Amino acid sequence: MAYKEDRNVFVGSLLGSIKGIKLEKKNGVWSSITKNLRKVDRLGSSQAVTAMSWGDEEQKEILIGLADQTVKVYDTEYSGFGSTFKADVGEGKICGVSRFQEGAVIAVQSGHIKIMAHETDGILEIGGPMEKMKHSSLSNNIVATGGKEKELQLWDLEEKKCIFTAKNVRHDYLELRVPVWVSDIDFLPNSNKVAICSKYGHVRIYDPKGHQRRPVFDFHIPEQVLTACSVSASGDKIVVGSGTGHMTAVDTRGKGCLHHQYKGSVGSIREIVCHPTESLIFSVGLDRHLKVHSLESPKLLFKEYLNTKLNCVLVRNELFYKHPKEKAAVDSDCEIIELSDNEENLSSVTHEKRALNKLFEDMESVIDVHKAKKTKRKRV
Amino acid sequence: MSSDEEVREVEETNEVLFPEDRKINKIKNKEVRSRLFVKLKRQKRKAKIAEKKKRKEEGTNKPSKPTKTIESTREEDDTAFDKLDEEGNLEVRKDLENSEYAPYFARQYEPKVLITFSDNPAKKTMLFGRELQRIIPNALCRLRKRIPVKNIVESCNREGYTDILIINENMKQMNGLMVIHLPEGPTANFRLSSVRISKELRRKYQEISAHRPEVILNNFSTRLGNSVASMLAALFHYDPEFQGRRAVTFHNQRDYIFFRHHRYEFKKGEKGQKVGLRELGPRFTLKLRWVQSGVFDGKTAEYDWIISGRRHDLETSRRRFFL
């Protein structure tokens, strides 16, 4: 578990450098130690990091997609690069990479998705220009794609078919078509819903399991080129960043409203990560800084100058790792029921969920009767 | 101590000292008063000069302290070049080698510049554009003819231009200068102010020779400053013709970039060589508004740096500068 105590934030730049950062917070004061993971003399603009993702659930290894379609695997446990392979499909830079069945899924700008796994293998042609591909956190075989004039699509990698295609919103008040340019995608935590942001300032949520293909939530921030989005851990806020360096949280409950304007950016924001357990936001962009905000306040908590224009950021789930012994001590202080292992904790949660589900299944449905009555009246 | 000394002096001279009551401002007659005042001033000045000379000869002249200005007490910028460590230095160097201006500094192409205006420019604006054409080698000045910037960029790419300058004006006053680097950006927008064309400086354009000028860039210390400086440098030919003795200066002071254009001359004086300067004009001042990462795009652009809309967040102190 030593690797979890080490670096907790990883940043990829447009020059190709990958930096491991150890962020610490002691008595409210932030500090960081940064290390370059690649040698400087190998860097160049063709080596630009364009996509990054965790390779496994333990967050031991990182998949890194470069502009020249190379995928590198970095092992955080042994602090070294493992295998390197090329996508060699279509044209353009990699716009999404992730693990799939111990292989990898790689999406490139021209709209090709290459599946490199033991059981399933092949190329999906979606059509470009693709801007982003994201892997679903809930089901391993679903990816979401989108791009310029390319609506959000969900693809099943095992069956190699499209399972959901979004439909554009209705024409605006001038009866003109609303243009589409999906720039970033994020899945809502523990749900099938997908959030997107567009370069024309739209923040939308789609529900693939629902009845409509149009967004279930649509919010417009006028005159902002949204370039990055991330859903908060609670799922009721989407943090979006723009090409002019504005970062703001959109509250998705009800009609939607702007929540906070996070301060401190002077250049375009390229990627935002909302931390799943701590209420922190990590953002990187063209102003060469890594920034940390709290979700609840617009103030800047911490920023670090990292020499080059930054494109990607990854944050460990256990940000401030505590040794199991320390953890137990803290828990006993707080008089919370002690749980020796995380897995046990998880299993108890799932037990509760199952019990709840059973409860709801046993209930009689009331709504159906009402519906039937209504339709009858209409017919008369 | 001092009072004892005075007493001793009095004893030595054996004279009675009366309190001096000849203050000049007490004299009623204005003519006498002013005459005496001038006299007193002259005496004081002579004494001061003599003292200074004496100090210089003795060699006890202390160097004057550096004056405290808002620049000398400037807030540290974390992107400043002098703050880099060894590894950071290597990385930044690599970054600069991969920047859009690397081919220019590697002398791989000769700059070719198009100068144009907003629609229907005023006469002074047109004259200013024509003067820029004389200063910048291999430049061409053309009227805009209501062509959108995107189309200009497209045709300039086709014709092999490397930079575009667009002079903007508001109510017949020049107020903006946009510099677009081709083929892939970046684009910078400056506020243009205090423009004096050579006619207003009582100079004739015939004085400007066709020699390629030297470019002097002063005080650009941060990463942003460096990118702006290289953007301005890349407008001029990399190889100056020294026999023309022509120099253009972009001097950054407190984030304002001052442009001056001079011809210099080496004179032989009594104490060795001296340098004479003659300003040729035009002169103007620039202030950076934003830098876009690609070629100009009004709607979906990504900015490297932009100050509009966040001035209260950024300009937190008078001692904070960005270039």
Could you explain how this protein is built, in words?
Chain A: It comes from Gryllus longicercus. Chain A: This is WD repeat-containing protein 74. Chain B: Residues 61-70 have a biased composition (Polar residues). Chain B: Residues 43-55 have a biased composition (Basic residues). Chain B: It holds the Pfam family Brix. The complex is a heterodimer of chains A (380) and B (323). By secondary structure, chain A is mainly β. Chain A has helices at 2-5, 324-333, 342-362, 367-379, and strands at residues 9-13, 18-26, 29-36, 49-54, 61-66, 70-75, 80-86, 94-100, 103-108, 112-116, 121-125, 130-135, 142-147, 150-156, 161-165, 182-187, 194-198, 202-206, 217-220, 226-231, 237-242, 247-251, 257-262, 269-274, 280-285, 289-294, 300-305, 310-315. In chain A, strands 3-2-1-28 form a four-stranded antiparallel sheet, with no helix packed on it. A four-stranded antiparallel sheet of chain A has the order 4-5-6-7, with no helix packed on it. The model of chain A is unreliable at 333-346 (pLDDT under 50). Chain B has helices at 2-13, 30-58, 86-97, 102-105, 123-135, 149-159, 223-233, 311-314, and strands at 113-117, 139-141, 163-170, 173-181, 187-196, 214-218, 246-253, 256-269, 272-279, 283-292, 303-306. In chain B, helix 5 (123-135) links the parallel strand 1 (113-117) and strand 2. Chain B has a domain at 108-314: Brix domain (Rossmann fold, 3-Layer(aba) Sandwich). In chain B, strands 1, 2, 3, 4, 5, 6, 7, 8, 9, 10 and 11 form an eleven-stranded mixed sheet that branches. The longest helix of chain B has 29 residues, at 30-58. Chain B is elongated, with a radius of gyration of 29 Å. Chain B has 323 residues and is an alpha+beta fold. Classes of the chains: A mainly beta (380), B alpha+beta (323). The A-B interface holds A 15, 17, 36, 40-41, 43-45, 181, 199-200, 225, 227, 243-246, 263-264, 266-268, 286-288, 305, 307-309 and B 78-79, 84, 87-88, 90-92, 94-95, 98, 223, 293, 299-307, 309-310, 313-314.
